[in-house]
Specification:
alpha/beta, Glucose Oxidase, domain 1, Enzyme I, Chain A, domain 2, 4 domains, binds phosphoenolpyruvate, binds magnesium ion, metal ion binding, PTS_EIN, magnesium, pyruvate
Length: about 750
């Protein structure tokens, strides 16, 4: 075979493009292409294998293999040499295919006479579409140039597949972005929604993979890379960068200035690709490498390069984030990840959110929860699969997404949504009634909040007040520290909206997973047990004092309720409470009205506080159990770690005994006690807590109706006896016993 030259490749690409310009059905086009490639590469065989489903490849066209094997020969991902190319996303080049490890003989193709094999992936930025293969009788290794040329052809095929040029009559061909896809992720926020995809960052569409004039394309890519370099340098020059942001941008700069990257793209262009297609080809190669790298740090860096490629594509195509597309009705936001401020900006107009990354405790999840928008996280490949406007169902309860669902699935889903709506209707009829159980005990149900957007739920849910107002959310959604006057106005609006109902403002709870974008992040080995919450407040009291002043001013003489997060020992509470008293004196001295009454409470989130001196329980005006944190420290199980976060049951008798102890200590000193972690909003847990004597539960607004309905239909004394019995019988958890009993209770 003659050495390939650049002009050979360009000629091939041009012939490819011309062939595709001829009107025809998909199968005809594929046949013509295989003929063309074999002819141009000087090989006896050229075959195109495409994915029939995500696990199966099918021979869709061939020049040289037996025609009857087309659409008959199939292999699993990873099976044989073709399967290996598809799985790894890397070429396989061998002079003696039958002796290659993993070779699978497929007699129907008649391929046994071909010794050399070169297979390259057909892929488009992370999306595997198939495999392109050439084979020849002569036993020889293909040259680097040949591999490269075939990769370039595969790249063009990928773009053309994306543009739908083969869709139509090709039997077995996976019509891209057309078929239903079900993705199993994780629950970020419960709830069900039906809507249409709205991509946070729209895909860049490359319509011109082949270019005639390499010189112009090289000029274009150089200019675009130049622009990219300037933009990264500008970002780096910003003053407000923290160490991590700087590090990421330094890596960006390194890649942006990398000669190798630009050179590879220029080589691609020399072979006939357009500048855009060259960027995508290198991006695909990076993605394929990304999947192979076990080292987390290196993977991150390759992610950086991926981001940078996207920026470069946007520069080249002029397609910004805002493509001018119109947001569909009932939009469901789909993104790799999203910041809390951006999500808040979309606000309640979103029906649902689906993220490829994200975590239960991420700020986006916190905002989605506050807005009561169903959220699915870890939805693998959703960004690649989804197109703007695609129908989508979000099942936040199961953590499942149905993209372009079949009508039967959509119908079943609509039934589920209707049932949930009917239940909400039922609950709203209980809105004005107390959560009074059959034994006469009344449990006070409050809601958790953190944004102004939450407050309309106060009326709607029937909550008696706000048991936990997470003030850090207002800090997290901004990009600079809020001013005192701004906060005072906001807190005043919260109190106005509460119309005299109690709002327990929790002072800033930052650190751990909640890192303010404008505060220097701490490099801590274990931030959940590090410098966080009240520890920061006491060591750097400036922000705490400013926040307390804002709260006092917002109250304008009305009652004020404040609580401190993460109090671990008595002394911390004394010091924090003293700050409140000092600020009250200061405000009074300045002639500002002071609140009519001030309650100062503590959140019990570390086991140690349950064993604090009696003086603590006497001094604090109330205690609120932060079950999310308390449980993670009690069971030594990270609340953010998917592997362990659900491992231990809240109704485990060890934890219940511990709660009993806290309830007893508060009872002994007459200290009001509430529970405000997520478990308060879960039916069986809430029932157990109420039965054990917790008289106030604070939860997300959507849980108030179901919990109230449940508590009203049971006798707490009976439930308590069931728990006592299960404990005495030595069970590890009382859940089965309580659920059995509950199943027998009349509706
Ligand atoms: C808790 O820890 O239970 C709690 C309510 O606080 P947060 O979830 O905000 O840490
Ligand atoms: Mg907490």
């Amino acid at each position: 075979m003659p050495e390939r030259t650049e002009s050979d490749s360009r000629k091939l690409l041009r012939r490819l493009r011309d062939t595709l310009a001829i009107p025809g059905q998909g199968q005809d086009r594929l046949n013509r292409i295989t003929h063309l490639i074999a002819d141009s590469m000087g090989t006896e065989v050229c075959s195109i294998y495409l994915f029939r489903d995500p696990e199966t490849l099918e021979l869709c066209a061939t020049e040289g293999l037996r025609p009857e094997s087309v659409h008959q020969t199939r292999m699993k991902l990873g099976e044989g040499l073709v399967g290996r190319v598809a799985r790894t996303g890397l070429p396989v080049n061998t002079a003696n295919a039958p002796s290659e490890k993993g070779f699978r003989y497929m007699p129907e193709t008649g391929e046994e006479i071909y010794s050399s094999f070169l297979g390259v992936p057909i892929q488009r930025v992370g999306e595997k579409l198939g495999v392109l293969v050439v084979q020849s009788r002569t036993a020889r290794q293909f040259t680097e140039d040949e591999i490269y040329a075939l990769e370039v052809v595969a790249m063009v095929l990928a773009e053309m597949t994306e543009l739908g040029l083969f869709a139509g009559d090709v039997d077995g061909m996976r019509a891209l972005h057309k078929q239903p896809v079900m993705i199993r992720g994780g629950t970020g926020q419960e709830g069900a929604a039906e809507g249409r995809v709205w991509l946070h960052e729209a895909r860049v569409v490359v319509t011109n993979p082949v270019a005639d004039d390499p010189l112009t394309e090289i000029e274009r890519i150089r200019a675009a890379v130049g622009q990219l370099r300037v933009s990264v340098d500008d970002l780096l020059a910003a003053e407000s960068l923290d160490k991590d942001q700087k590090q990421v941008l330094e890596a960006y700069r390194m890649f942006a200035h990398s000669r190798g990257w630009l050179r590879r793209m220029e080589d691609d262009i020399a072979l006939g690709l357009s500048a855009e297609a060259a960027v995508e080809k290198e991006q695909s190669a990076t993605r394929a490498r990304l999947e192979q790298v076990p080292d987390a740090y290196l993977r991150e860096r390759l992610h950086d390069l991926d981001d940078l490629s996207n920026r470069l594509l946007r520069i080249l195509t002029g397609q910004g984030h805002d493509t001018g597309a119109e947001m569909p009705e009932n939009p469901v936001l789909v993104a790799r990840n999203i910041g809390p401020a951006e999500l808040l900006e979309y606000g309640r107009k979103l029906k649902g959110v689906v993220l490829e990354e994200g975590s239960v405790g991420s700020h986006a999840a916190i905002v989605a929860r506050a807005l009561a928008i169903p959220l699915v996280i870890h939805a693998d490949r959703i960004v690649t699969e989804a197109l703007n406007g695609d129908p989508i169902l979000v099942d936040g309860d199961q953590g499942i997404v149905h993209l372009r669902p079949e009508e039967t699935v959509a119908r079943a889903f609509r039934d589920k949504i209707a049932m949930q709506a009917a239940a909400q209707q039922r609950y709203s009829s209980l809105r004005g009634l107390p959560a009074q159980s059959k034994c006469g005990t009344v449990t006070s149900l409050m809601m958790n909040a953190g944004l102004m957007a939450d407050l309309p739920s106060l009326d709607g849910s029937g909550a008696e007040g706000v048991g936990l107002f997470r003030t850090e959310l207002q800090f997290l959604v901004r990009n600079k520290m809020p001013q005192r006057a701004e906060l005072a106005a906001l807190y005043a609006r919260v109190m106005d909206a509460a119309k005299g109902k109690r709002v327990a403002f929790r002072t800033l709870d930052i650190g751990s997973d909640k890192v303010l974008p404008y505060m220097k992040p701490q490099d801590e080995p274990n931030p959940a047990m590090g410098w966080r919450a009240i520890r920061v407040g006491l060591d750097k009291p400036g922000v705490l004092r400013m926040q307390l002043q804002a709260l006092i001013r917002a109250a304008k003489g009305r009652p004020l309720s404040v609580m401190f997060p993460f109090i671990t020992e008595y002394g911390e509470f004394v010091t924090a409470r003293d700050v409140v008293m000092a600020e009250l004196d200061r405000e009074a001295a300045m002639g500002h009205p002071v609140p009519e009454t001030v309650e100062v409470g503590a959140m019990l989130e570390t086991p140690s506080l349950a064993y604090a001196p009696k003086a603590f329980f006497d001094l604090t005006d109330f205690v609120s159990i932060g079950g999310n944190d308390l449980k993670q420290f009690f069971f030594a199980a990270d609340r953010e770690n998917e592997r362990v976060r659900r491992r231990y049951d809240t109704l485990n008798v060890s934890f219940l005994r511990f709660l009993d102890h806290i309830i007893a200590r508060c009872a002994a000193s007459g200290t009001p006690l509430s529970f405000c972690g997520e478990d308060a909003g879960r039916p069986v847990e809430a029932l157990a807590f109420a039965a054990r004597g917790l008289r106030t539960l604070s939860m997300r607004p959507a849980s108030i109706g179901p919990i109230k309905a449940l508590l009203r239909r049971v006798d707490l004394a009976e439930a308590n006896a069931v728990i006592d019995r299960a404990m005495a019988e030595g069970h590890e958890t009382i859940r089965p016993a309580l659920m059995d009993w509950l199943a027998d209770q009349p509706e």
